[in-house]
Write the structure tokens for this entry.
Amino acid sequence: MPFRHPDRSHDLVARIEYEVRERVEEAVDYVCLEALVRDRRARGQAPPAADSVDDRRAYTADVLTFLRLLHRELAVGLSADAQRKAAHLAEVPGDEQAGLIAVQVAMARALPDYWQRFEAVSEDYLASRGAEGSGTSACGPSGRESRGLLARLFGRR
């Protein structure tokens, strides 16, 4: 067990950082792919194809657009010091996407309500994409159960 050794506490920090980064990347990926699918569906086109250069370009543009929107919307609640740190993290030479992901990882670790705010921004972003309804299913806006385990157990809304 690598975390039992007192000199390996940095391993736990690195693992948490990695897990949060992976979760942020997956969430951004979902939102941007959903936006691309909605755009294509609204225009009556076929779903995006993994081997299409145009679809990859559109997806990459969606990722940058969504990450910039997240940065603008979620930075509002940060202190001046945290905003400076976020601006510093965003400055990755030659790779804006990596910088914006790093900012989201830092925000996810710093803001207790990050995922609720992320969900609200992503819902607004998706609502602005594609004219095909709200895109919500019976389970909620993300296709998953919208309520937490305790809320479902106790019948709370």
Summary: Residues 2-128 form one domain.
